[in-house]
Automatic annotation (TrEMBL):
Keywords: Cell membrane, Membrane, Transmembrane, Transmembrane helix. It is found in: Cell membrane. GO terms for cellular component: plasma membrane. The chain crosses the membrane at residues 12-29, 53-74, 108-129. It holds the Pfam family DoxX. Belongs to the DoxX family. This is Putative oxidoreductase. Its main location: membrane. It comes from Microlunatus parietis. It comes from the Bacteria. It is a multi-pass membrane protein.
Amino acid sequence: MTQRTARTDLGLLIARIGLGVVMIAHGWQKYAQNGIEGTTAGFRQMGVPFAELAGPGVTALEIFGGAAIILGLLTPLVALANTATMIGAAVLVHGSNGFYAANGGYEFVGLLAVLSLGLAVAGAGRYSLDHLLVGRRRERVAAARTAPVPS
């Protein structure tokens, strides 16, 4: 496999910022506009299982997970959690409304799920806390393994 290029890492940063901003905005709407109780009640009305856990859990994931995605912190884990959440939203809430978001369909949450899954698979890239905390160490270990052995 080839090493990542600076352009690839820039693309991952742009994707992380875009996804993170959308996540934070939707989480903040749930928290500040609807309130946790209102969000939980809305989830319950839509038939979301375990609404009492899902309401605050999804709100926290969107706010704190969105910030983590932007920073590139625990990116694969947070992105995978968001993928599962968006698939749940598509199936439980939007699926019966067809594809288009204008009709309440799964178009938007589907796009967020695919973007999240892509970040879960690709990782955060070099412009991230993940790389700063873990990636540089991995690169040093890999370089040490391939370094010529002195005779």
